[in-house]
Amino acid sequence: MKKLLLLAAVVSFTMFSCTKSTTDPNDPNGNGGNGGSSGLASTTPSKTVAVLEDFTGVRCGYCPDGHARAKVIADANPGKFIIIANHSGGYAAPAAGWANFTTTEGALVHDQANPAGYPSGTMNRMVATSINATPMNIARSNITMDRGQWSKAATAVMNITAPVNIGATATYNASNREITITYDMYYTSTETEPNFLNIAILQDGLISKQSGGTPDPNKYVQNHVLRALPLGSFGAEITSPTTAGSRVATKKYYYQVPEYYNGDDAITGGGAGKVEDMKVVLFVTRGTKDIINAIEVDIK
Fold first, then answer.
1. What is the distance between the terminal CA atoms of the chain, rounded to a whole angstrom?
2. Neighbour count for residue 244 (Cβ, 10 Å)
3. Helices (H), 116-265
4. pTM, entire model
5. 133 pLDDT exceeds 50?
6. Any idea where the domains of the chain sit in the sequence?
7. What is the pLDDT of residue 15?
8. Which residues lie across from 285 on neighbouring strands?
9. Could you tell me which residues come within 8 angstroms of residue 227 by beta carbon, excluding any fewer than 6 positions away?
10. Mind giving me the DSSP string for 8-36?
């Protein structure tokens, strides 16, 4: 199963011919060296940033309550909590008269989580019981929980010392609609399992019809909407050393923003790609689970 998931990530990555990753010319050896303070990522051990992957959908009447609960956690923990609204599952599937915010890559992440209902979510894709939470349905998944568990799970994650720090910036070139993501990583402790870098493109301020939406269910504001996982559903393996004191080389990744997502129909499409409303999230996982740290950056 693991081989199939990794193969899916590779296939998904190759589909994005408009993007590429290159080693920074200032580091021709491509290994970033060991130790030292140069680079974007801090060398000081830090706490883990909590990442909620909220499985939601436009026809899910209880999902706005999940959005509201997630916002409360985010407002109380600026810079420490990231929301990824993954529109997936039956309530998000394309349907006449409803916006389509789904993504091919996000569907595989949803399927791994295997939620028993909506809204539901994973916190750093960690086993729920390991972060003070109760699984939604242990027979289906040990990482997925209902919205009532998100707050305490986030608190537990934010108290874990992260083994890796991530540094990143993002800039936009309007002439070719291209975002340049510059990043590096620094390991403060040694990782013994394969690590994977993931990139997520998110967008705020999308207006759509939403079951249970307030104050107007026909003009609901969708935020943190997952637009793309350009490195594939489960990222790209980090092949440089992941041992304590190692810095992963500064690299650049290029993502071209489409004019529209899921078609330009004003009702059933996914809306325009507005860079001014977008953010970039980078996170590192062990295999396809365990997000060990993350960072969210604005696009300049």
1. 39
2. 16
3. 150-158
4. 0.89
5. yes
6. 2-18+47-162+197-237+259-298
7. 31
8. 196, 291
9. 103, 201, 202, 203, 261, 273, 278
10. HHHHHHHT-TT-EEEE-TT-TTSS--BS-
